[in-house]
Specification:
The complex is a heterotrimer. Chain A is mostly helical. Chain A contains 15 helices and 4 strands. Chain A is globular, with a radius of gyration of 25 Å. In chain B, helix 3 runs antiparallel to helix 11 and helix 4 crosses helix 11. Classes of the chains: A mainly alpha, B mainly alpha, C alpha/beta.
Amino acid sequence: MSDFTNSIKKIFTRKNTKTEKARKSPLSQRNTQLIIAIAIFFAIMAIGRPSTFLSSTNVSSMLVQIADLGIFAMAMAVTMIAGGIDLSIINLANLAAVVNATLLKAVVTESMSSGTIWLLLFLCLIISLVIGLLGGLINSFLIANLGIPEILATLATMNLYLGISHIITGGRGIIGFPQQLLDIGSGHLGFIPVPFIIFIIVAVVLYIFIHRTPYGTHVKLFGLNQKATFFSGINNKKVVYKTHIIACMSAGIAGLLIMARTNSATVDYGGQMILITLLIGVLSGIPATGGAGNVINIFLALFLNQLINSGLNILRVSSFIREMVPAALLIAIVSLEYYLYVINNRRLNKQALEKSRQLNGEGAEKEAVT
Amino acid sequence: MNTITKSKFTETKFYQTLTSLMAKNETMLVISIVVMSIVIGTINNKFFAVETIYETLLATVIWGIVGMGVALVMINGGVDLSCMPIAMFSAYSATKIMLWIAPNAPIIVLFLIGMVIGAGLGLVNALFISIFKIPIFIATLALGVIYKAVMLEFIGNIYITPAEMPQSALDFSRTYVFGGLHVSVLIMLGVILLTFFILRFTVIGRGVYALGGAPESAERIGYNMNRLKFSIYIYAGIMYAIGGVVYVSNSRLADPYDMIGTELTVIAAVVLGGVSLMGGKGSVWGVLLGALLSVIIKNNLILIGVTSDWANFVFGLIFVLAVALQAYNTARSKKQSA
Amino acid sequence: METNVIELRDICKSFYGVQVLKNINLDLKVGEALCIAGENGSGKSTLIKIISGAYTYDYGTLKINGREYPTISPSQSISEGIQVIYQDFSLFPNLTVADNIGLGYHLLEDKKLFSKQACRKIAKQSLQRIGVEMDLERLVEDIPVAQKQIVAIARAIMQDAKVIIMDEPTTALTQKEINRLYEIINKLKESGVSIIFVSHKLDEIFAVCDRIFVIRNGKEVANYPVDQFERGKLSFYMTGSEVYEEPFEPEEIGEEPIFEVNSLAFKDYFRDISFAIKRGEILCITGRLGSGRTELAKSLFGVLPLTEGTVTLRGEQINIRSVPEAIKNKIAYVPDDRLAEGIFLEASIKNNLVSVVLNDIASKIGFLKEKTKDGPAKEWQEKLAIQANLEDPGKSLSGGNQQRVVLGKWLASTPDVFVMNCPTVGVDVKSKSEIHILIRELASQNIAVLLISDDIGEILNNSNRVIVMNDGRISYEAETKNLDYDSLSAKITEII
């Protein structure tokens, strides 16, 4: 083969045109934009309300709030990179929580030793992951094998998982779990809350998937052009399965985390969260049609969202408006991105036109045919 | 070479009409409804009483009317999650406005105010979808949340009690025709007929299908895309508003927290009704039958021994089965034609 | 009377900064049949879409029937009497044949109500004019591709058009249907309708056109009445250089076939396909759209799993039931629709080049660093002389460079069999001849090359054997050294 590849080298000629490297200002990079936005928000809040905003309880509670939302946002982001969506993740997390809660309620007794409870909690983690796996399998089967559009498929299973939770609990919330679980939810490792550390672990795992495996490139290419991935021998079904299994298993962990944090398991926790996860995905620079994404940016977008949220909290904005803000931001950002695309296209075309007119003016019509 | 030596039977006209009839989603729905009715009827012999049938129809009204709008958007190729927020926004605001300016006006005024508001919100939807090219799902999801918040913050968040409701709305809720059929059933039928007429017999109606099937081609043969999309979303907004006003009037209560959150019931009915998941195909009668079937199932679950805890699950399962069945049918018919 | 229906002055158009039309000047007279010729990617389709209002132009003036349009919408263009038969047909798969043909009439007449009867009537008349009968109530998604093209033609000719633009309208038609189309065009001309006929097939151009307008790289390069145009010069104008390719002659043909197929069949699309490619050979398959050649190529790549027949690679029988399985068996495939199936326009060149081999370059436990991709990507970028930054998106490249990227991603997987479906469509002439040399190099390196092409010159110069497919079967097979341009094109015309 080496002979061959060397001979190929002689076939193709290099034109003597210099390739112009597109100059990209760092401002056009999403992570710079996010950092600037975070810095501005942070500065405003830190100057405006130093006592409340910079208090260690506020920072700590922000980190705790980020934890489960963060896992959901990461899970949603993976499906968005694949050009899709998974609306069922939050109900699946609730299902995992409800199942584990029921189990703990049934099994745990006062006299149980701490070791046994830890073992049980480990079992709960396994159960959460298995529920996530099953949910991911069902979702992917509907999407990849039956060809149902992701929105409708996951909208349908979202209801299905809610229904199963309802059957288990009869719609009632379950409260009161072993202290060991609550310790996870409220514990600190040094200054950092344990839930946040769990989120970081999930984020690192996802980072490895997205940025350090062939799957990461597969899923981006899949998000861009499913026909071309098919013709490149990338197994599209496998990509769908992996994506939704990753998302749903993360959701399973989030379910357990919510239990630990709130000391309760309810069938309909976090109803508004889907929209916020979509917002974070879009904020992080994932195009509305998928195909690109960066875990670091998602992380930054998550922080930005949390800052905005805390800001609204401190400013005592009415709860209705607070619910509306992520929706309005989502719409605004997607609209703005489209608008900038149009503007940029127009600018580039104008440049091309001017360049060609200059050439014509100089009479540099080299390709004239006689 | 099985395809070449087909059996004689498959070439008979009878077989062909039979298969084409069976392939029709409406036929399957009618069969399902009949089977369900027989099952429920044998358990509860009151099921076939005229009153029960009228009641079932009345319960279908909201889903049927709102379903027209949702179906239109889905034929255009998207899922509209802002349907119920628009319905509630329009109905609640219309009631407030009417109480404020003309509390004694006839019911038609309430409808008209609602429809104007619904059209306006549909226009906002169209603006973001058509001009800013936001994916339909994301736009309607976010706008739905915004409509709800705007209503609760700026229009009101306290429900209007039956005692405060306009008299004409209360009268409307008690208007029956044909010995017990509620008048809103006629409104639903009117709305369905109108939508049917538009889709079948107007150029813009055919454009809805053309747009759903091949958007680029629709533009190339001379449809004005913006006009077409604005028409779809404004019409859908009006449908939602009618549904909302009917709902508020019938329940004699305008509760701004009501209705919102039941979007999925409508979407499920529309999918069950055979509107294509990919856009481009679907009929209004299918939507009506889909709505009817889901109401029959929902209203009679307890009767056939399903407890209310299971209701959500059964609904979820029906939704999953509806989408799965439709996707399966599409795949099969594609395979046959290939 | 010499009036112009369409006048273009200095028309320029760019897409995302890439200029595809440069100062085009064009006049179309009443009753004139103008041929726009040019290679794929030369800008001729863009030019048409500007006239039809599908694209807006950046600069210049556009006059239709004497009226100036700074911007023009498709509906304005249609109401000025311009009808287009698009290359991709632009039909509605979910509507019936009758609706497809009749809907445009309703829009043109600005009707508010839609009449099914009117549609049927118009469709019937229109199809009769072409001399074709078909079931008006069938959905377009269910009819074969040749009928789709006829529906597209029928839709354009039924309306009282002043100008009919035909963008390669004969790709799926039989000779009989093509002759019928010529008759229609001549009749239309007599009644004062102007025709713009886009094609690069010489026979067609000389059969129907009065004038030839050649476009290359977005620029006008020739504009002559057809009787002053030298037949042999067309390819020179289109390509810009007198490329002389040494006809391909295999260095030495091996005894044993590398790749052999026996009585292949896929449903109704093709059957009884048998051929063998020996070492050093390049086999070419041609045939019109719908002849089964594309399906055959896709079957060999596992896209449409074969329903019958056996495939043998280097003496071993292999199964190709899916694309990954085909790749595992070292079969590579260059798709004909490069933009949709070949290249990831928005992805970086690097990711494009490694897309096939990602799993192979990953570490044993399945990790893949971003840097690991640089190695193979750089290697193939250099070998194929792709002039760009590896991080630039595929869409920033020219057609020729895009095709190099597609070839590169397959070469990286070291294939044994290379199925190339129209690999030089839409690439500039220089890249084209480079790709041809590459194909020969592949053949000399013990790789079985199956070339699928429409371009008779390309077939003759770059294969030693040619198979003509028609109606799903092999209807002609010959050594190319016994053929010349005229004899092969005559043969193809005779068959189909």
